[in-house]
Amino acid sequence: MTHITKERMMTRSDTTSLRLEKTTLIRLADTTREIRCDAGSLWITLDDDPRDIVLEPGQHFLRDGCTGTIVYALEPSRLTLHHAATTARCARRVQRPALRPRALAIE
Hints:
The structure is a single chain. This protein is an all-beta fold. It has one domain: Jelly Rolls (Sandwich), CATH 2.60.120. The chain contains no helices and nine strands. The strands form two sheets. The protein has a five-stranded antiparallel sheet, with no helix packed on it. A four-stranded antiparallel sheet has the order 3-8-5-6, with no helix packed on it. Strand 5 and strand 6 (52-55) form a beta hairpin. It is globular, with a radius of gyration of 19 Å. It starts with a strand and ends in a 24-residue tail after the last strand.
């Protein structure tokens, strides 16, 4: 059974601390800017980014922009998420089909 425990952080209202069991997968909100591994090991993958990021205790990763982000616990882990002060949502990129030139009929 997948289990996530949210802990209350008394120091900052824009910070969230989570405990993840091994193999737990979470998708981060657009407002999350920093991911810090406090214990365990985390694998991070970003939409449209070929990199695989692995964080060990004491390491952190700064997100730039609003790229979709998945965090996976490689082992029981604890992480802290720092959120941007703004609540503005990121615009999602819409993939549109390429335009094809039309043949003009000349009479």
